[in-house]
């Protein structure tokens, strides 16, 4: 059985790059950024992801949005987000954050039962809300350096450290253990399309060079997550952007 990367994070990364890469190929010369020494390569991958989005993912998401009632779409997103609570529980424990691990465990149990397999986010209505954690964040807590920024084919924005954490995140995501290939792949496709549909309304927000914007925004948001908000207020929590921690993908949509 082949591993699958954690659905919400992986899909968000893919969509962030795919949606924002339209201007990459027309960029003029810019000052080199120390955190992005591989910019030439990254922009090429950025353009590849954009082509994938333009001709496949975005049309599928538009069709999904057209035929899916809003309550159903919300329920689908809740279902996949709920699966990620198990990853948060494990990584919270590895980081020495038992309180956040308890919150994630409680959220999973409540939403999986009272919330009908996670379709309803009952835990949030009970004000049981914590921070999402993954193995990239765990590596940061363990003292591993961030490394250069890198754009991954299909998966999108990352760093060397976060890329190293992806295999572990794969094995802490429940869909990895669905034995039936057709069911597993269908669920993952639904997850990606549902996440992309959630970005359709945000595509107008980006201005200027999209590659630079997504890189700088992603790095800022990622450092905010790694430091548990100690860098200050969440830069994407304003009314203008209308983002929240449970849907980090929206921070990088057009």
UniProtKB/TrEMBL annotation:
Biological process annotations from GO: intermembrane phospholipid transfer
Keyword Signal: yes
Top-level division of the source organism's lineage: Bacteria
Signal peptide limits: 1-32
Stored InterPro entries: MlaA
Residue ranges crossing the lipid bilayer per the database entry: none
Keyword annotations: Lipoprotein, Signal
GO cellular component, one term: membrane
Family to which the UniProt record says this protein belongs: Belongs to the MlaA family.
Protein name: VacJ family lipoprotein
Species in which this protein is naturally found: Halomonas nitroreducens
């Amino acid at each position: 059985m082949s591993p699958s990367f954690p659905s919400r994070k992986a899909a968000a990364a893919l969509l962030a790059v795919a949606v924002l890469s339209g201007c990459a190929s027309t960029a003029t010369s810019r000052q080199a950024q120390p955190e992005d020494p591989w910019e030439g390569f990254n922009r090429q991958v950025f353009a590849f992801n954009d082509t994938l989005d333009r001709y496949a993912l975005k049309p599928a998401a538009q069709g999904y949005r057209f035929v899916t009632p809003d309550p159903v779409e919300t329920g689908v997103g809740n279902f996949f987000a709920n699966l990620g609570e198990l990853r948060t529980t494990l990584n919270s424990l590895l980081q020495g954050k038992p309180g956040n691990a308890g919150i994630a465990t409680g959220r999973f149990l409540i939403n999986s039962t009272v919330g009908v397999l996670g379709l309803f986010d009952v835990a949030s209505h009970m004000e049981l809300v914590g921070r999402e954690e993954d193995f990239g964040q765990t590596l940061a807590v363990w003292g591993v350096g961030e490394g250069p920024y890198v754009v991954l084919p299909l998966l999108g924005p990352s760093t060397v450290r976060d890329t190293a954490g992806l295999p572990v995140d794969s094995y802490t995501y429940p869909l990895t253990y669905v034995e039936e290939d057709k069911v597993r792949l269908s669920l993952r496709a639904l997850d990606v399309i549902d996440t992309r549909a959630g970005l359709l309304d945000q595509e107008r927000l980006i201005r200027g060079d999209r590659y630079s914007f997504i890189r700088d925004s992603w790095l800022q948001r990622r450092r905010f997550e790694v430091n548990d908000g100690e860098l200050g207020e969440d830069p994407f929590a304003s009314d203008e952007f209308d983002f929240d921690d449970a849907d980090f993908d929206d921070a990088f949509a057009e």
